[in-house]
Structures
1.
Amino acid sequence: MCPTGKELPVLGARSFPEEADTALVPGELPNEAGSCWRVRDPPSSAWMGMGRPARSRSPGQLENSSLFLQAFLLLLLCRHVSSQCKILRCNSEYVAATLHLHGPGRGAAFCTALRSYSLCTRRTARTCRGDLAFHSAVHGIEDLMIQNNCSKEGPTALPRPRPPAPNPQGFESLDICDYERSFLYKHGRPPGFQHCAAFGDPHIRTFHDDFHTCRVEGSWPLLDNDYLFVQATSSPVAKGSNATVTSKLTIIFKNMKECIDQKVYQAELDNVPAAFQDGSVNGGMRPGGSSLVIWERSPGRHVEIRADYIGTTIAVRQAGRQLSFSIRAAEEVARAFTEEQDLQLCVGGCPHSQRMSRSPRERGRVPAETARALCREMLPVEDVYFQSCVFDVVTSGDTNFTMAAHGALEDARLFLPDAEKLHIFQAGGGCPLISPSFLLFLLPCGLWAVLLHF
């Protein structure tokens, strides 16, 4: 992904060589596709032609020119060039060498980096003939050497060693495929996160901490945004029952050019694999392929999928005859959808027509008090997870549902950004209980209303 949010200045006052056969228009730089990057005119001078460098510039302008060149080089890094021309390697080495050079004291080190950059371009000149990215870099180097009074003769630095490759193909790990690190760099703070879960009947905890019990049957989207698609397929928990459980989960990690190939994960009852459908366990052969990985936490029962390139972690579990899904997603990722993608159980919860009460039924496969005793062993706090556990055990008669609710609670404990929101307390019908503090607030208001009436 190319850097955004900055205008690019005119790199120098020189024209491209004749083999490029391209005329420059003030304020534009041509690319290989024939279109142009829009650039900003220098603040202190008009467009100059035919290789005449600026006569005088302030130290601030010189430093800005260097920063602008780095921004331009980063842009060039994102462009496609032939496998023979190695200009991108020269660009990346120069950016790495000057990334931390700032202020008036950078002179000698900066000139050394420019000479190294120039040497690298000369070595690859033969294979880069006619490449606009190459010629842009050559003229940018010449201008910067003039502006900084750098001699063409002098020491050159060895290329900085690259970090260890994350996979056998030797691809370099990219910061753009580390969402949390990239967000911190851009915004100066860590990103926010949201949590959603689907387990048991199914019970849905939305990104907004609403909690619903659904009778949805068939396939329903839990998530559908620019990065992820998650679909849950439900079937009746027992013959003739209105209650349903998740029997299949399909998760699609959509293609992200810089980081991963599109990957599909699918789990079914008694088949919770620790690999994607194509047999791989990561995001593929791209530079950021290691930013998507699957970890097997319990063979055939619990897997965790970490998608660091979008700041997201997903847990898939099987307990009894049902599957559960939990996710911690970056806020930007959770909100990256259009109006056409409005049906998402993790966002809006169950449709009103599909919601059920969690009040224990009079006639179940297990008595309500027995179910309460079983669930209390795993869930001492009588919150919505406890209510869901009781409902599922009564309805299905399967005591393994205590593990489903317990697993969902443990995932919430790990994934929720705010630990105080772990427990949700609702009436059996799904309406939030009024807190005591709110009742204390209403009491004096009611007394004032009575006094004013009389």
2.
Amino acid sequence: MISGMYLGDIVQRVIHRLSLESDIFGPLSSKLSTRFVLRFSIYHGVASKCRLLHGRYMPTPWLSSPHIQTAFLNFHGRPPLVDYTRKLFHASDGGTFALDWLKSCDVLGGSTYGDDETPIVIVIPGLTSDSSSAYLKHLAFSTAKRGWNVVICNHRGLGGISITSDCFYNAGWTNDLRDVIKQIHQEYPNAPLFAVGTSIGANILVKYLGEDGEDIPIAGAVAICSPWDLLIGSRFICRRTVQKLYDRALTVGLQEYAQLHQTLYSRLGDWDGIVKSRTIRDFDNYATRLVGKFETVDTYYRHCSSAQYVTKVKIPLLCISSLDDPVCTWEAIPWDECRTNKNIVLAVTRHGGHLAFFEGLTGSSLWWVRAVNEFLGVLHSSPFMHKQKKNPPHSVEEDSSCVDQGPYVNVSNGMVAAISKHGSDDDDDDLSVAREHALAPPNTKALDLLKWLSQVFLQTRRSTWVLSALPLLGVALHFFLIKKFNKFLLPKLLK
């Protein structure tokens, strides 16, 4: 009985401590400390003025699980009503895809800028997503409501448009984005251009920014829930049962996409293999690899991963990811590369799921949408917008040795804080939990055991419903031991 009570007390104290310190049960009212390096102008001049990046993300209480958030976004999402204006884009290779526009005048009834000076946000959707996706409607409506124009660059073969060439989109296909940006810039030369990529679209965007360097007309960009390293992501999504469910669901979506274009896939890929595919990797092996002419699936993943292009990004870029993202793992986040690049601000939350980040009691809005608009709005009113110029023949990064001095945004109590080696001695205590790879072995003392258990839970980041079951386990074990004591030990002691 004593052992059961002690274990129950230990478990309850661990849960209490986790709820106070790690924000694992949901955001609390703890205030964050923000530190930054003055020499990095993009952080000091832009990100430091973004209130949302220095506050707390508070998920909708009944959507606390990342799986519930992600599922709710895909099956419901509560998107606003939008009425796009569609224009077809004809690529130089003969391909055709749709550009869906939502202008500020469509939402506000008028424009706060001149016709050719209204800022334009170019959006790149995620895998098998198009302009009808709930999260893109949230983004488009919110952005247009603040007076900007939005254009969603649908992938080839999506949005109801047939594929008219032998070229398909993939996770590293940047040609279409490059051509669209070039044409929009030619049509609206006085309009500031911004870009937002989501999921696979974020990977495409970051890769494009790294490939073209300074020679792009984009003033600033945001990458949401990027997979970063496709090889790591491929291994992660088939690691556990829950991830396998996402893997299977995404594979079915890809097969439905292939079904729309069966004639071309039958000629360019392995149709029998596509039909029998059970995972994304299977589909990439029988379809994406063959159409894109990659030797192996791993070759495709390595070639198209955006992580290798992070250090080459030359424009202001905000990257938002979630530690509990069930699709794109935090293990693939290029932490040090983002620190090295003075143009990048990396914001990581503990909660949010994949592209969800629902907030408020009713879950009617997405936190990341507000964060995107705030960042781009501050950037637009600052002198730090990128201006296109030719790339130097031999570009040398001036701050290549300052890996630990960049505008790196650290996870702490549910949201973000910038850290620096030149800050106070407490900086080491503010390091992201995701960066703590080694756990100290437990000691026999109760406080050390509590600390170690807290570390374990933070490291594994189990879902809240699993953690909330631990007190019940302690209580059940307590009553079980009492029952055993009363049934067997007590009669023997009374004899």
